[in-house]
Amino acid sequence: MLLNDMRQFFRTTACLCLSALLCVQPIAYAQQDLPDIGTAAAGTLTIAQELEYGDAYMRILRSTSPIISDPVMDEYITSLGHQLVASANDVKTPFHFHLIRDRSVNAFAFFGGYVVANTGLFLHANNESQLASVFAHEISHITQRHLARHMEDQARRTPLTIAALVGSLLLAIASPEAGIAAVNATTAGSMQASINYTRSNEQEADRFGIATLARAGFDPEGMPDFFGQLADQYRYASTPPPMLLSHPLPKARLSEARDRAGRYPRVNPPISVSFHLAKARVIARYASIDSAQSLDWFERRLQKASPMIKPTLEYGQALVYMDSGKISQAESILTRLLASDPYNNFYLDAVSDLYIHKKQYDSAINLLKKGLERKPGNQVLTINYANVLIEANRNKEAINILQRYTHSHPDETVGWSLLANANRKAANEPEQLAAEGEIFALRANWNKAISNYTRASQLAELGSLQQARYDARIDQLRIEQQRFAALQ
């Protein structure tokens, strides 16, 4: 099935379910107050089916949204997310955390353990507990299987298939703005029933979310603090951010959230340097502002920053300098930062890029080798190491590393992209086509993926193991394409 067909499928019956997500009201309830009804949807959708739907939707999201392929940011949000998952209840699926390059404030979760956040969250969160509160809320939606339970409720009241209900729900969580128009097409009775059902889910999600925050060592006040900030900032805005469309902020919700968070011991976690480095990286590279504005942002905050935060702001300055071609300014900062914290992946990543800019490939290779000796197999360092090898025209070495990497991380486009580039530079067209084919498959473009592998098979030696491998992958891709189409 073509990607456009799948998009149409996800929009088929949106008007029946979209209004539910416009009424998300995070209100904290202590864990003992409500029964655990997180597995009530077992009769509607199995965990295996949820994983299948989640994989399908993630492929569509990669093709339609600016998903960030940044190993440093991926490592940070994955570490944060898994710290929360380790303290969550009823975890039944693996979890995957992704960032979308978008300045608006929004986050959503969907089947298969996928949590997706906009980079705009970093622009508004003041500390890691506030950011973690958003992730904890979305994690709770998944662990309590709220999408499946909502489908069960809808299926009892409508003649729609599970597939159609999945499509409308996924569209709702990803595009709350689209729900505004859908509400106008929804009958009052159906909309109110959907609203009431969603409110109970939101109460449960926040109850579990605040409990998860507390158990994971974060400040449980992070949730009401963050949403309170948003309420104050956008109180008189004509167009609120997407998160406020799907998570309205009435006074009652905020007061109840503060009351519930207050039932847990107030903690004061140590300042997370990694959070502030990630925030600085977002400001420097993903906030869609020019270099002069970015430098002004960092400079103003440096004037009043604490000694612990100051290096993170200087790191952001160095990224802006490097990205705008001011290599000497970047180097003076990064050399000092790396000396103060020689195994920090944020710094190692930036300094390896600096060496590439200066064409000092051996320096970068030696730096990353030392890092990998201390952190064997680390994804950030491995990707940087392979990238430096490609820049140094040591493509065979890079290919060996990336073949192992993509085998271990088949769902990461950055590894396949580097592998395609290395094979291109090595004049190995069949392997280049195969790597590019994997990227097409990860974006649900099955026809192009199969076409790439078909061309690779034609170029391979007749009867070779390489050709047999390509042909076997073509068969696999056709099966995946059929499974994808069957979701309709």
Overview of this protein structure:
This is Putative beta-barrel assembly-enhancing protease. It is a single chain. The protein has 488 residues and is mostly helical. The chain has helices spanning 3-11, 47-64, 71-85, 120-124, 128-143, 146-157, 162-174, 178-184, 188-215, 222-233, 242-246, 251-261, 273-285, 291-302, 310-323, 327-340, 345-357, 361-374, 379-391, 395-408, 413-425, 429-442, 446-459, 465-486, and strands at residues 96-100, 107-110, 114-118. It has a 3-stranded mixed beta sheet with strand order 1-3-2, with helices on both faces. Helix 10 (222-233) packs antiparallel against helix 12 (251-261), helix 15 (310-323) runs parallel beside helix 17 and helix 20 runs antiparallel to helix 21 (413-425). Residues 1-42 and 173-197 have low confidence and may be disordered.
